[in-house]
Amino acid sequence: MVAFNRQVNALGGVQSDVEFQHSFDVILSCFSTRILTPGWRFFAKFQLTESERLITKHVGIIDKRIYEIVDSYYNEAGEISDNILEGDQTMTGLFLEAAKQEGRTCDKKFLRDMVLNISVAGRDTLGSALTSCIQYLCDHPEWQAKLTAEALEVFNGHTQEALTFDDVDGRSPVAEAVFMETLRLNPAAPYNERYCAKEVTF
What we know:
- By secondary structure, this protein is mostly helical.
- The chain contains nine helices and no strands.
- α6 crosses α9.
- The longest helix is centred in the middle third of the chain and has 32 residues, at 108-139.
- The radius of gyration is 21 Å and the shape is globular.
């Protein structure tokens, strides 16, 4: 919901949501074999291996889901809908609003790439960070107790549907400290690379 105004129930819900998340795992597994496969581009072009056929299949599943999200931002005339952007504080909504104010246009392919990038970045980094966080909490039960006590206080009287960001903002110092210390000890993305798509003058 932070990335785009759409709930993706990765652990349950409708089957398409589960398949969407599962496809990332399949593709990641297949990509790992490419490192050991000389000439993989040739195999990919002609779909000569089961691994490359799986990648194509699951990229299609991911694209189908992402284009559903992308299409939700457009009106029947094929333009970004002002009504949908109004009050949309998600990363995608804020990006589109900024692009609109600057007079830039975003075609569906560009928006698809951006939504996919947000999905991949949020999925892998969060999974890695939560794994490390759980490990540290298991090693330090005293912090488990502090975190549990804080959670019970913050969640008291709320259902899952009723709880909002404003309900927890500024009221979860222990949770914030635990997560920040986890990231300090085990950065989810210790380095990153970027390539220029065109010439840039600084």
